[in-house]
Design goal:
Helix content is 57%, strand content 22%. It is of the alpha+beta class and 230 residues long.
Length: 230
């Protein structure tokens, strides 16, 4: 390999790495324009070295490049509470190294195609990822609702049982249930019911069943400071 071909390969890797890094920096990621450009350029230079020596082995050098980028990627991954950040950045750096390896091996067109795919994956899959995150967090978040029902003291056991029966079809967990006399032949039944996600319709159905009981005079429920009375 002469110097001109070496420059072409490394320059192609530089441009492709810059394209990947531009998308990363545009969205304010940890590893941006310069980092991805340098990773792709360095990988191309290492692999292009094989064409400049007699006993070079492209795949052998490429394997060492992959290992080196793995250590680099580990540096941008960190834990924040229960969340792990930087995984996508590390994966993008790994892909930038693959682009540089392709360009350094002389497969410039393949390196360009890989660059387009990496950028497309980061841009096009981002909205889908956010949609999945919102759906998952909504489904997995526990919401506690406090129900209160005012009823006649003679109907207190029946109202307690009704609250348990109304919660079962909604797949809700009754964590606490208590009642007390309020005087003047009245009673108050109170329960804390836990739902998976913010299921307002289910809460309304439970409250409606309680309110439909003839001995119940008032029903109220509360979620994280939201008070509702029927």
């Amino acid at each position: 390999m002469d110097l001109a071909e070496f420059v072409v390969r490394v320059a192609a890797a530089l441009l492709f790495g810059a394209a990947i890094g531009f998308e990363r920096q545009w969205y304010h990621r940890l590893a941006g324009l310069r980092t991805n450009t340098l990773v792709a350029t360095g990988a191309a230079a290492f692999v292009a070295l094989n064409g400049m020596v007699a006993d070079g082995g492209p795949t052998r050098i490429a394997a060492q490049v992959v290992s080196g980028i793995g250590f680099l990627g580990a540096g941008v991954i960190f834990r924040e509470g229960f969340n792990v950040r930087g995984l996508n950045t590390a994966a993008t750096l790994w892909c930038a190294g693959a682009v540089g390896t392709l360009a350094g091996s002389g497969f410039v067109a393949a390196a360009g195609a890989a660059t387009a795919l990496v950028i497309a994956a980061n841009i096009l899959l981002r909205p889908l990822g956010h949609l999945v995150d919102r759906h998952t967090s909504k489904a997995e978040t526990e919401v506690s609702c406090r129900f209160r029902a005012q009823c006649a003291d003679t109907a207190e056991p029946e109202v307690r049982g009704l609250l348990l029966q109304a919660s079962a079809p909604e797949h809700a967990l009754v964590r606490a249930l208590q009642s007390e006399r309020t005087g003047d032949k009245g009673a108050s039944v109170e329960a804390i019911v836990v739902f998976q996600g913010h299921r307002r319709e289910a809460i309304e159905r439970i409250a409606g069943r309680l309110r439909a009981h003839p001995a119940v005079s008032a029903v109220s429920w509360e979620i994280a400071g939201e008070a509702h009375t029927e």
